[in-house]
Specification:
There is one protein chain. This protein has twelve helices and no strands. By secondary structure, it is mainly α. The radius of gyration is 20 Å and the shape is globular. The chain has one domain.
Length: 273
């Protein structure tokens, strides 16, 4: 690839970013709904489990502060690693506007879809961070276990978690090439994610069978692993094992997406969409 081509690609991505950033600002009501969803669920779980821990002294070794810091960290990690591909790509497949994207010199997934995801995250964080800081000031949790080293070590885990979420979401969205019931499939996938990623409750409180299954599934790598990592609750061997597993799952998810995408695009083109 020549320098000119690299420069052209950079201009293309910069333009996509500008367009998607402006587009996200136009849908502020939609952003507010997502923001409420991201804030309300962790805060509700935080309130319930911290109250139980205070009443009992602890819950299987977890104190009230452990629950507070867990859900506050989860609030940020969830935004960083979540994926909204289905709300972008499924619509384009079903109404046929994907045709225009397919004739562009860059992959539709790496431009409109991924850049839209990133612009949405950036704008969400602009609003979320002040809200998160207010919650911290009101609740005053003890984050003394968090260090700069744990934060830096968590950043690659967040990037891997987002990559896994993105390619899993994109693969499931490709179901729209064959059926209009893609949102039903997504709801089932979301339910599995909540169960195995630690969004509902820390995985150490789940039944042993679920804990064991979660160790090998990709869901805990998108939420639970980064949260535990930033809170300094993982021994070194578990940290590197999860990192290795995350890399494997990222490759598997990306490969699976490419296979399903190619088959779906062939069908999409064959029916003349």
């Amino acid at each position: 690839m020549t320098a000119l081509t690299l420069g052209a690609m950079a201009r293309i991505y910069r333009r996509f970013w500008q367009v998607n950033w402006a587009e996200q600002w136009q849908y502020r009501a939609n952003l507010l709904m997502y923001l409420l969803y991201w804030i309300v669920s962790p805060v509700v779980y935080l309130s319930i489990w911290s109250a139980v821990a205070r009443a009992q002294g602890n819950v299987q070794g977890l104190t009230a502060n452990d629950f507070v810091t867990y859900y506050l960290a989860l609030l940020v990690v969830d935004v960083l690693t979540s994926d909204i591909t289905i709300h972008i790509l499924a619509y384009k497949i079903q109404d046929g506007t994907l045709s225009g994207d397919l004739i562009r010199p860059v992959h539709p997934i790496l431009t409109g879809t991924m850049v839209n995801n990133l612009a949405f995250k950036a704008l969400t964080l602009v609003v979320l961070v002040p809200v998160w800081l207010v919650l911290v000031l009101l609740i005053r949790p003890d984050f003394s276990a968090v260090t700069w080293q744990s934060v830096l070590l968590t950043l690659p885990a967040v990037a891997l978690g987002y990559g896994i979420s993105f390619f899993l979401g994109a693969t499931l969205t490709c179901v729209a090439f064959w059926t209009t019931r893609v949102y039903a499939v997504n709801e089932m996938f979301y339910s599995l994610g909540v169960l195995f990623s630690g969004q509902f409750v820390p995985l150490e409180l789940m039944p042993r069978a679920i804990q064991q299954a979660a160790q090998f599934l990709p869901f805990q790598l998108t939420r639970y692993f980064p949260v535990q990592l930033v809170l300094n609750r993982l021994p070194p061997e578990a940290t590197w094992r999860n990192y290795a597993l995350a890399v494997v799952w990222l490759v598997v998810c990306a490969g699976l997406f490419l296979l399903v995408w190619r088959a779906g695009v062939k069908r999409f083109s064959a029916v003349g969409a």
